[in-house]
Amino acid sequence: MNRYVGEVDFRHDAQAGIGVLLVNLGTPQSPTPGSLRRYLKQFLSDPRVVEFPRLAWWLILRLIILNVRPRRSAEAYRKIWTEAGSPLMVISQQQTKALRELLATRYPGLVEVELGMSYGQPSIPEALDRLRINGARRIVILPLYPQYSGTTGGSVFDAVADTLRRWRWVPELRFINAYHDHPAYIEALAAKIRDQRQRHGPGDRLLFSFHGVPHRYLINGDPYHCQCHKTARLVAEALDLETDQWMVVFQSRFGREPWLQPYCDKTLQQLPGQGVRAVDIVCPGFAADCLETLEEIDQQNREVFLGAGGERYQYIPCLNDDPDHIELMAELVAASTSGWAERDIDPAAQAEQRKQTLRRAQAMGAKT
User: Fold this and answer.
1) Which of 80, 96, 210, 316 could cross-link to 282 by cystine, CB 3.0-4.6 Å?
2) CA 319-325-331 angle, 5° bins
3) What is the pLDDT of residues 236-265, one digit of tens each?
4) Spatial distance between the Cα atoms of 53 and 338, rounded to a whole number of angstroms
5) How many angstroms separate the Cα of 176 from the Cα of each of 5, 9, 145, 214, 225?
6) What is the pLDDT of residues 17-54, one digit of tens each?
7) Domain positions in the chain
8) Domain 17-179+322-347 is of which CATH architecture?
9) Are 211 and 152 in contact (CB under 8 A)?
10) Which CATH class name applies to 183-316?
């Protein structure tokens, strides 16, 4: 039995290809307690997500959290679930299809694009296997987390490394760990916000809400907090906003220890008392709308703000499969595959290209 994964009767003259792996967090298979229990068990067992003494956390997770949280989470998922399934999964599949089609026009027959989820299906190992079977010898990993955190990008790297360590032929790898300040990303966000505010009118304050992480992660060197603030600042500058017209908040905290602040829900509760009666809120850290944006931000936090005396609350959707967003992904892939496409073009095609170049040069020489 082979210890490492390879191909049966591998063809050594096969054309090498380029693979692109898009990665997002994942989603349960259905909005049921059983499905949520399986999903949360995998998610919350990741040591990158919860940095806590493992034995103590194992007991807390299995004896308390997995006996309480699945039912509550299932109720939240049911509020956003569609006939097509989980919004995150549907949008992620749309993004994958759109990027695959765009890259096919630029690199015909050369680039394969697959979707993998850190937790749930389709898994990262499954997606990498599909790329391997389709001949990818060079792979770009694109986690759809604009701002790097060990809890997200770090976890993706771990999963990729765990998979590739079992492959016989380890591919050449390029890993995009952040794009929080990429000009195309900033402009896509600014255009989305600008369009929404032009169509519906601007609020008194624009809130940039990012998923929170424990504050101690920042103290221990995680760059996420700084990258979130840089993204918000660059977008605010692109929109020509004054410093009192926007702010950064953090959502989705879990447990009792301090997380990154200010907290989104607490801030929304306080703003009406400070004279801010209309807010716009956007979630730049999410590449696709999901439970945290559609249920937590657009539903729960809307109730918090309006219940505290607010008068108008506008949630601005994520970039999802907007053309600007797909173009950004293509730009990230192009930058990361620099030199690869040229190396992977069929040798015969390269020879023909050289002949054509020589013929053009000779023709130009004859004219002069």
Assistant:
1) 316
2) 155
3) 999 999 999 999 999 999 989 999 999 999
4) 42
5) 25, 33, 10, 24, 18
6) 999 999 999 999 999 999 999 999 999 999 999 999 99
7) 17-179+322-347, 183-316
8) 3-Layer(aba) Sandwich (3.40)
9) no
10) alpha beta
